[in-house]
Each structure stands twice: as C-alpha cells, then as structure tokens.
Design a protein that fits this description.
Elements: H1 11-17, E1 29-31, E2 37-45, H2 51-57, E3 65-69, E4 77-79, H3 81-89, E5 94-98, E6 100-101, H4 104-107, E7 113-116, E8 118-119, E9 131-132, E10 136-138, E11 141-143, E12 148-152, E13 155-159
Length: 170
C-alpha cells in the first residue's frame, strides 16, 4: 500500500499503468528529505499571502498533500522551515506549491516533501486572504480537494481515484 513515508511507486510507473493520468507540467524542484510522497489533496489558492497555508498546516494532515496555488509568484515565499515543520509534525505527507519557498537548507534536513518552483527569502503577507478547498489549476492540471496526488523526483500526478502500482512495468 502506498504511504507517504514508504511509497512503493514512481510517477513513471504510475503513468505507465494509467497513461491518461494528468501530469503537472511545471518545472518543480524537490525540497526536504522525503522525495516521494502521496495522499489526498487539500487545496489553497492564495497570492503572496500564506495565512491560509499556516492555518491548514497547523491542523491534522492525516497523510494528505497540501496543494497551494500561489499563481506562480516568485515575489515572496509561501512556506518556510517553520511551516514545513508544522506540516511534518501534524502528519501532512507533503506540499505542492505553484510558488516559492524559503529556508530551503533547513527544509532539506526534514523528513518532509515539498515540490515548489524555487526559493526566495522574502516573507509573504499573513492576512489569510484566499480560498480553501476550491479547485485550483496550474501546469495544465486541475487539482480538487480529495483528488489523489503522487509526487517524486520526476513530477506530480493527480487522479480522482487512487492508482495502484500492482504490476511492474518498465
């Protein structure tokens, strides 16, 4: 069974099993020690403001993946080491961010996974302006809360149903 801390999948194998699975087309970087993670999506849409991201990462994650649509802004970071640590401690599998992070050296020592567009040391606003659990669209993929999200070094897949890597294909 796929779990966030011991996944038995690669996104390449999953796309071979289910070739119509949407694959996010953004050039993500991987941060944190957990390079493979998966779980059900929770979504946040925000712009240069991580207040909602902070709120949700401080709740039980139950192995979910937080998908943050920051509109691709590189102006300010939506996650830093303190929020990544909150996510890790609260049982989130990881985060996918259409935006940037900060404190990447500290995050890279954590048993946590983040896919993001890069880094910027600048803090974001903290006004909690945005939308929680609405559909978000980036990289030619629509993410809905409750969708399954699979992440590894090769990319990000999203599926309405779980994809089981029950057969070995090359």
């Amino acid at each position: 069974m796929n779990t966030p801390t011991n996944p038995d999948f690669t996104t390449a194998d999953l796309i071979d099993i289910a070739p119509d699975t949407p694959s996010c087309e953004l050039p993500f970087f991987s941060y944190g020690c957990r390079r493979h993670f998966c779980g059900k999506a929770r979504t946040v849409k925000c712009f240069q403001d991580n207040g909602l991201v902070k709120q949700i990462l401080n709740t039980p994650g139950n192995g979910n993946v937080l998908v943050v649509d920051g509109a691709g802004s590189r102006f300010s970071a939506l996650v830093g080491d303190m929020l990544a640590e909150a996510g890790r401690k609260n049982g989130w599998a990881g985060i996918v961010i259409n935006g940037v992070i900060r404190d990447s050296a500290a995050i890279n020592t954590m048993d946590f996974g983040i896919k993001a567009l890069g880094t910027n040391p600048k803090k974001s606003a903290k006004d909690a302006v945005g939308v929680l659990d609405g559909n978000v669209h980036f990289g030619n993929v629509t993410f809905r809360s409750g969708d399954w999200v699979y992440c590894d070094e090769d990319g990000v897949l999203v599926s309405a149903e779980p994809i089981h890597a029950s057969t070995n294909q090359s």
